[in-house]
Prior knowledge:
Layout: H1 4-13, E1 26-28, E2 34-36, H2 37-45, E3 70-71, H3 73-90, H4 92-95, E4 106-110, E5 115-118, H5 119-123, E6 132-134, H6 135-244, H7 247-251, H8 254-262, H9 274-281, H10 288-304, E7 308-309, E8 323-325, E9 331-334, E10 353-355, E11 364-372, E12 378-385, E13 402-408, E14 411-415, E15 419-422, E16 430-436, E17 441-446, E18 452-457, E19 464-471, E20 476-480
Parallel strand pairs: 7-11
Antiparallel strand pairs: 1-2, 1-3, 4-5, 4-6, 8-9, 9-20, 10-19, 11-16, 11-20, 12-13, 12-19, 13-14, 14-15, 16-17, 17-18
Helix pairs in contact: 1-3, 6-10
Amino acid sequence: MASAASVTSLAEEVNCPICQGTLREPVTIDCGHNFCRSCLTRYCEIPGPHLEESPTCPLCKEPFRPGSFRPNWQLANVVENIGRLQLVSMLGSEEDDICQEHGEKIYFFCEDDEMQLCVLCREAGEHRAHTLRFLEDAAAPYREQIQKCLQCLRKEREEIQEIQSREKKRIQVLLTQVSTKRQQVISEFAHLSRFLKEQQSILLAQLESLDGDILKQQDEFDFLVAGEICRFSALIEELEKKNERPAGELLTDIRSTLIRCETRKCRKPEAVSPELGQKIRDFPQQALPLQREMKMFLEKLRFELDYEPVYISLDPQTSHPKLLLSEDHRRAQFSYKWQNSPDSPQRFDRATCVLAQDGFTGGKHTWVVSVDLAHGGSCTIGVMSEDMSRKGELRLRPEEGVWALRLAWGFVSALGSFPMRLALREQPQQVRVSLDYEVGWVTFANAVTCEPIYTFTASFTRRVFPFFGLWGRRSSFSLSY
C-alpha cells in the first residue's frame, strides 16, 4: 500500500494550474498541458486582448484553438485512482484490521504462528489446535515486555547522557588546564630568559674583568722580565770583556767582579699571580645561581605548573589504635601494642589505617610519602571518599571509594577492582601522590626518579581525603611535599 507521503506527492502532480485543485474532467490543449474543462472554458471567456487572436496557454503562453480541447481519459482515471488511494490512506487503520483473505474484521491472535486471525481463520483446521487469544489479551504481555525494555533503554540512555555530560565537563577542565599551563610555561620561560640574560651579562662582565687582570699582570711580567734580562745582559757583557783582557787587567778587581756575579739575586716573576689563578679556578662557582635557578625551573615544569604541593598532617581522630603518630602528625609507625584511643565513628577499628586531617572537593594537589618497610610489612597510599565506612574489614577498591597503591616487601600493587601487581624498574622509597579532582585522576609516581607508577580515573562527587594504611613490625611512613 502506498504511503501517505507518496499519495500526497502524486496528488500534487495532478493539480490544475488554474484553480490549483485536483483536475476535474481533465482536457489537453495543443501544447500538451492539462487543465480542468470548466477552468479552461472560463479562461477563454475572460475579456481581454487575447480574444482578438488565438488564446495562449496559461503556463507556456503557446497559442491554442478554443475548440481543440481533447478529453484526457487516461489522466482522469489516474486522478480517480489517486483519490481512492487518499481515501484508503485516511481509512488505513480500519483496513489494517480487516483480514485480507476473508474480508472479516480481525479479533484473534495465534501465538503458535504469530498470526492475526478473523473468525473464519480461527475455524480453519490449521489453527484449531493452536493457542488463540483476543488481540488485546495477546498484546498485554508484550506491552509489559516493551515497557520493561523501555525502562532499561531509558535508564541506559540516561547513564550515557550522564557520561556524556561528565566527560564534556572533564574535557572543558582539561582544555582550561592546558590553557593555564600554556600561559604558565610562557611566563616561566620569559622569567628564565630574563634571568639567563642577566646571568650572561654578569658572567661576561666577570670574564672581562679577568681578561683585564691577566693583561695587566702580563704587562707587569713583561716589564719585570725585561729588567732582569737587561741586568743579566750587562753582567754577561762585563764578564765577556773581562775575559778578553790580558791577565794583568783580568786579575784587577776580579774577586769583586766574581762576587757580584755569584751573589746576584735572580727574580723569577710569575706571569699570573696565585690570587688571579685562584679566581680563574673558582669562576665555575659563579654559575651556581644559574644551576639553582635551572633546577627550580625544571621542578616547576615537572610539578608546580601541574599540581599544588600541599601540607598534609594525619588526623589522630581517625587513626587505628595500633598506629603511633608523631607529635607533628607527619609520621606514623605500626605497633603491636594498642594505644589508648577512644572509639568513635571516625576511627578505623579493624584496618590499621589513618586519614589526613583535611580533604579536598576540588583542585589539583600533590604530596610525597616516604615509606620504610625495612623490616617487612606493607603500606597503602592513596585517597578515600569521606562517606566510606571505617568500621570492619575494608574493601580497598574504587567501587567502594578507595583509589590506592599497596607497597609491600619487593612488589607494588594497584588496588583496582582486582589487585594488579605492577612491573617497576625499582621499588620506590618515596611516592608522589597527585590528585586532580575535576578531571578525576589519582596519579602515583616515584618521587626520586619521577617514573610513573599508576593512574586511577574516577568521577569524584564527595570530599576525598589522603588515605594511608600500615602493617608490619616497625613499618613506618612520613609525609613531605
